[in-house]
Amino acid sequence: MVLVPSGKYLTAMAFLKGPCKGPMTFKLDGVLLATKDLSKYQRKNWISFEFIKNFKLIGRGTFDGQGQSAWANNKRTGKTFPTSLQFTNIDNGVVQGFSLLNAKMFHMMIFRCNNLMVDSVKINAPGNSPNTDGIHISLCNNIIIKNTKISTGDDCISIGQTNRGLSITNVICGPGHGISVGSLGKYNSDKDVSDIMVSRCNIKGTTNGVRIKTWQKSYPLTCRNFTFQNIKMDNVLNPIIIDQEYCPYGNGRCGGQSTSSQVSIRDVTYDTIKGSSASQVAINLKCSKSHPCKNLRFRNVNLKYNRGTTQSTCLNVANPNMNSVYPLTCKR
Fold first, then answer.
1. Which of 67, 164, 188, 287 is within CB 3.0–4.6 Å of 102 for a Cys-Cys bond?
2. Which tens digits make up the pLDDT trace of 298-309?
3. In the chain, domain spans
């Protein structure tokens, strides 16, 4: 076991790399402070755990990224700042109990991991802190995130390419950009995303609730078998959104209107999602013209805009299944 006792400790970049001869436990009871000197990060992460089987990161301590020193330099132009905590090639892991505070960029990155559980973690950064995603997951199998509270300036949880078998349960999200799948299809190496379950979550004061986004100009892949259920929305700008016209560079810079996303979305269920929308359009489905969304199922959805009539958008959705849905969506 590696133990960080009570107290405050200033650190530069550090990584613990396996393989190890047996199970490995890292216990954090104190506060680790990331140096503000960006020249001390030879790699784009602060604390990294790599190539370890049967790993535990536990404790009641805090990883403080001291991100305030970097946010003013982040103009959202693609420049990368250190991720606070990265897990790479972890098989059979438990991440539990501690806090992540004010990352310079992402708070936690889970990359090429199998059978890893994140439980009872607190992540906190101001709502205006740039690119401070709570948890980003990419190229993973069988990841569980539960009993976790996330407040950030970007996605609470972002699900990247080539993921299979992800469960998100009892997460409190806000402020931030919600729980997002994507953006997908930007690179030829992006592969399918499947078997995603998001349930019993509370999303409050975010720009998005549950979102699927793909690049307008994209490489082909498939999103399938997603379930969003038992979710409470509280003053969320876009409670339910599928955006297959994603282009952060401005109109015409991702291929223009004639370009249609090559990402296929199918077998997605929205079940028992209720609450309030901060915008008039509470359900916004903008699917691909060349690859329409297929087998979308909505059951027991009730989202209301408190300042007027609640509306929905439905573009390129093939034969949706609607049962007790407000606002009325994809009218036939």
1. 67
2. 999 999 998 999
3. 2-248+260-326
